[in-house]
Amino acid sequence: MIKKTSIILWHKLLATMFEELLVSLDILVSSDIQIMTNPPKADILLIRRETPQWTKEQLMRLPDGIQDTKADHILIEFKFSESVNIDAINQTLAYDTFFKRTNKSLRSDQIQTFILTSKTPIKETMKMFEYTQTTKQGVYHSTNILLKKIHLIVINELSDAPHNDFVKCFSSLKRLRQKAFKQITKVGRKGLSVKFYYFINGLIKLLNRKKQEGLKMESEITSNLIMEIGKDMYDAMLSGLSHDDYIERFGAKEILSKFKAEERLFGLRPEERLFGLRPEERLSGLRPEERLSGLRPEERLSGLRPEERLSGLKLEDIEAYLRKNQKRHD
To answer: Are 112 and 69 in contact (CB under 8 A)?
Structure first.
């Protein structure tokens, strides 16, 4: 079980999820970034776009609020176990300020800072900091002169749009986590790695108190441990899926990379093993007698020129055959 003294660095777990989602799409994800010249590192997450504009594929893996910004440097202060309060606001303002001072080459519109919270803030807090909802559910902007640059995303209030499912796995509400998890695994997302599914399954188990008794005792709950916990999902997810489903969910390259050559063919019927191969590929590696095994004599010789059919035969064998054949016609 998890010790009461176990350390869970939630921003690192969030970083791992975004790494699996975004790095393949030319987006850099960093945790514990340096925000000052000689500082302690901050518990804040940086998502940096490395493409000229946000692409459709990138946006489909980012939640509302972050989707809507044109900035290419996204700072995220993630609050999972703590509520949004004055300390969280002050800390985020400090991160935003010092990051901008350290990165003077960046324009103000290239940087956008968010507070991403798992718990729903109380109404008094939202009123105190002058946060009001935008046209997107769960996305808030402040009219306070100091907080205009700090946007707030409340995970519990985000819509059911597929691109919100990823962060909703970090919701403080079990029903929302389970719903998002089911949606991700049921629908599938082409191009996501198997490691991503390991991680999400392990995360859900970590957050499900009824199953925490089965977790390893560790002083720190790391992303690697979460993936180990979630590996048992692999067989459950892949069992019952057709090969077309594998490719649709993960892509052929991702699936085949997990297996050795002989494992890739395990359980397939002979015609399935050869499907899609050119004739020369099907026969590659076979001895001549294996290539011809099972063929009728006329099939073995089909397509050969007369001299090719006779090649290798002794002259006396050919003459003997001709004499024998002549007698049959006499």
So the answer is: yes
